[in-house]
Amino acid sequence: MGLQIITADQRMAEKKGHKIVVCGPSGVGKTTLARTLEGNKTLFMDLEAGDAAIEGHPIDVIRPTSWQECRDLACFLGGPNQSLADDQPYSQSHYDYASSMYGDTDTDKYDTLFVDSITVAGRLCFSWCQQQPESRSDRTGKLDSRAAYGLHGREMMAWLTHLQHIREKNVIFVGILDETTDDYNRKQYSLQIEGSKTGRELPGIVDEVITMAVLTGEHGPYRGFVCQPLNEWGYPAKDRSGRLATLEEPHLGKLIAKMSTQMPQEGKPLEFVNPITQQSEEASNA
């Protein structure tokens, strides 16, 4: 069998999903964003027991309560990783087990998985890690915090990477954004999650990092998506699609639609429209 090459036409015809992290302070309305998605095509992973924000919205919900359930669901939704040994999570044997648990569930109808939130997922993961033998000292049997945090980082990144590899679905991770001030009175932002490895490496595996923030304009405060890393507020952001403006309307349905549009022909630059002023960014910067 020769080398399998996916042609440009085949690749462009494939159904592709976007992998998005939406972070923001508590209470800014991150969970409510699920209302801007098609309810019958969205699966809501409720880790925070906070689905009051989507009360009345027709959306299917799953409620894992342990880290083992989180791993089983990720394996079932993402399929097996054939490069892993049978005794490893997300392997073929793990997928067979997860399929025996959830095999009657129809997940093909969902275009989007909304994970609320990775902050709570991190807490479930760390609680599980603390109970594992490798997090205990061989000599005293007491908890080894360094070993527990190391295991936590590996577990979280394996889980997130497996969900990120669900090629045909949008996967949206919601997380709390912490704000601190350093000794020079400079604001710094970080994802609220146990350990440092996940917060440091997560932006590298997703397509988009978006900060949902309350900003101040001529007509008072408003909520917006900050989507470009070079922004005046210093918020974390990343746009791999190349289609988003610095500010976008806080509407996930419209955002995903915009990222899914065809790129312009070579030589024709993208024209971004600021959703607040409704002006072309190119015109406003002229």
Task: Describe this structure as you would to a colleague.
With 286 residues, this protein is of the alpha/beta class. The chain has a single domain (8-285), classed as Rossmann fold, CATH 3.40.50. Helices cover 29% and strands 20% of the residues. The chain has eight helices and ten strands. The protein has helices spanning 8-13, 67-78, 92-102, 118-130, 145-164, 197-205, 252-259, 281-285, and strands at residues 19-24, 42-46, 60-62, 112-116, 170-181, 187-191, 208-217, 220-226, 238-239, 247-248. Strands 1, 2, 3, 4, 5, 6, 7, 8, 9 and 10 form a ten-stranded mixed beta sheet that branches. The model is unreliable at 265-270 and 282-286 (pLDDT under 50).
Structural class: alpha/beta
User: For the residues shown, what is the average pLDDT?
Assistant: 90
Named at the architecture level, the CATH assignment is 3-Layer(aba) Sandwich
Question: How is the biggest beta sheet arranged?
Answer: 10 strands, mixed
- What count of helical segments does DSSP give? 8
Estimate what percentage of residues fall within beta strands.
Answer: 15-25%
**Rg computed from alpha carbons, rounded to a whole number of angstroms:** 21 Å
Q: Low-confidence spans: pLDDT under 50, at least 5 residues? A: 265-270, 282-286
Secondary structure: helix percent: 25-40%
**CATH top level assignment:** Alpha Beta
Order of helical and strand elements: HEEEHHEHHEEHEEEEHH
Number of domains: 1
Distance between the terminal alpha carbons, to the nearest Å? 56 Å
> Any idea of the CATH topology?
Rossmann fold
